[in-house]
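Notes to self after the call with IL:
- keep both proteins in one doc
- input above output, always
- annotate only the second one for now

Protein 1:
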Amino acid sequence: MQIRPARPEDADAVFGLLGQLAASFDPDRAAFDRTFADLFQAAGAQTSTTTETLLLVVEDDEGVVRGYALTSIVPLLYTNGPAAQIHELVIDEAARGQDLGSQLVHAIEQECLSRGVRQLTVASRRAAGFYDRLGYHSTAEYLKRTF
């Protein structure tokens, strides 16, 4: 098992996993391709005062992508430094129960620490028990408006 930054050639694998995550939206390949490409283009243009995107994948021993996580890091005023939020995290149904999700979260935490992140949040009602076991606790109720 290896956790690494995503590469453009991971698009098909990540799109396949997206179908296991999406509950509010049906995955649209054309929209996905645009956004996936934008993530890599934006990565080269980031400075310390902009939003940073962290897209990690977890591969099994055969090099098959079994999960991914998308996290944003933004400068916030009230946290006295950058804050991060895990927006998407999914492990392939066939690979669940192998501790890959926990290892992916720990890798995100290490990346955040190396970037001076002061706070890491995740909005997840369906996976609250998973995050509770990793030491996260509920502090707010998220409200959303979908367009």
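Protein 2 (the one to annotate):
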Amino acid sequence: MGFLKEFKEFAVKGNVMDLAVGVIIGGAFGKIVTSVVNDVIMPVVSAIIGTPDFSNMYLVLKGEAADGAPLAAARGIDGNVVFAYGSFITEVINFTLLALCVFLMVKGINKLRKAEEAAVEEAPAVEEPKAPSQEDLLAEIRDLLKNQK
């Protein structure tokens, strides 16, 4: 089997296409979660802890940094080694929210599936008409023969 033919079979399989759709939707969903974190949750958290945002929370391990300087300025100084823990905190919050959203979606889908399965199981079974027994058919034939005479 040629390489191109083999690749074509792989690429057009349903699982590959499902995976591609999942990756694309996942990327878009990740952007939504990032927006929720940056635009909705982080301002609330920042109001509670009193800092404008986590992205400028850092610690200079080696070198100098001006007090209150943004992270970009601290990183821009030659020789500075900066431990940017605020960015890490933001990413942990993003991941946690994304995992929570996926969990809630899966939980909802499972609940819908269970409800659908229960509805199918509870649906009254359609009774098929009962076929006449051999004795009934013979009796009917006998009656028809009697009526012909």
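Annotation: The mean pLDDT is 81. The radius of gyration is 34 Å.
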